[in-house]
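pinning this so it doesn't scroll away 📌
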Amino acid sequence: MFAGCTHEPAVALAERLIDILPRGLSRVFYSDNGSTAVEAAVKMAVQYWRNRGQAQRTRVVALHHAYHGDTVGAMSVSEESIFTAAFSPLTFPVVRAAAPHCYRCPLGLERATCGIACSDDLDAQLRQHADTVAAVVVEPMLQGAGGMIVWPAEFLSGVRALCDRHGVLLIADEVLTGFGRTGRLFAIEHYDVEPDLITVAKSIAAGLPRSSL
């Protein structure tokens, strides 16, 4: 976090990132790591609505099986687990929606005929809470710590459509999946979906310290 200062390498990196990020993303905010990137994205979503005169939009919708980091806000939007239980008094409540899990379908359906019915839960949650929701946060294509759950392509396209329908922002957490780890530069490119905010971190350097590049 530069606190209003800058320097040439930071500007150069930001410009290179903007050149390769999904369409529509034209600003870069530096933080410390993946967890704080998610925290910053959530704060930006909340501040966006406050700046637009809708300060009641403070809720975040997150998915089951999610993992977004170990800081307090990132734990809040992650699935509750034995790793977060000790810190539950510190976390904030989120709206939780079903994630696609074709191997263990929460609805007991078969992928060939399911029609991506699991997305109906997100639709229902947004219908109920849309006026107070700032953003939906997802790990596009692959939920890693949740069990290496690979999504059907239609689910993420449906998330984008539901966010548009209900007027909420979409945060794509690509800390795990960004920079070629799924076969494309960003996982979201498999679905030709444009997020409103994207988080990247260790994936910029493949998880290696800069001295190893």
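📌 and the second one:
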Amino acid sequence: MDKAKLNLPPELAKILKYWQLIVTLFFLVILLWSSIFQISTEEVGVITRFGKYVRQVEPGLNFKIPFAEDVYRVPVERQQKLEFGFRTANAGVNTQYNNQSSNTKDESLMLTGDLNLAEVQWVVQYRVDNAYNNLFEVRNPQSTLRTLSEAAMRQIVGDRTVNEVLTVGRTEIGSKSQELIQQICREYSLGIKIEQVVLQDVNPPEPVKAAFNAVNEAQQEKETLINQAKSEYNKVIPKARGQAEETIQQAKGYAAERVNNADGEAARFTALYNEFVKAPEVTKRRVYLETMSSVIPKIGNVVITDDKGNNVLPLLQMEMNKKNIK
């Protein structure tokens, strides 16, 4: 009976043999397709056999056991990011952001160390540096990273005043947050390296934004007035100091002149006195003559007569003739 069943017409046997070949080739193609896979340049491949980790493969063409081994592609060279307080709605030339949802509002609203509120938006940029840990040590590494990043940022912001958060402390907050997030990632074995934490935008909450703006304007006006006062101070004070120094130098010059003159007069008097001691009569007569020569020209016309007055009239007559001639 079996031989009878196998005695098929030649045409049917040929067709059956053809279909067997097609099925075999199809099965071989499926096996080959399932065993060959490609890993891109920015990824590594993690191979598991029946769910257990067996090896890690590098970028390029690789092989695996079909139906028994699975491949997980982990982007270890690609920089990834998590956004907090906003979401990128449309990336491109005209990037649009969405920060109106309740989730983003809850993420961004934080309590500062001086019991004020601030809306902090930031970005965590990271890479996967350990594919095994990232896949198998934590159930959902990205969600875990989001949670611990928010906790770290709240801790850092909670240690500072609202003015530090809004103004000068932004760079320090970013660096401190990066260090704290990286430390927690190592403790949790996330296999993630934090490359940068950037504070995108920090603002006071909407209900108090007007009051904050008014305070900032007042502080800016205060700084402006202080700078103007310092400018006027720098203009007036150096000028006054210069004038004072000039007056002091003039006084010193005048004092030196008077002292030098006094020293000269004293030296002249000493020299005269020394000469007087050597020849008193000669010195007296010389001083008398010098004094008379300087005094007489200043007293006008002088008439000198003898005891009898004989020569007065001729002299007066000569004076009258001189006046008439003039």
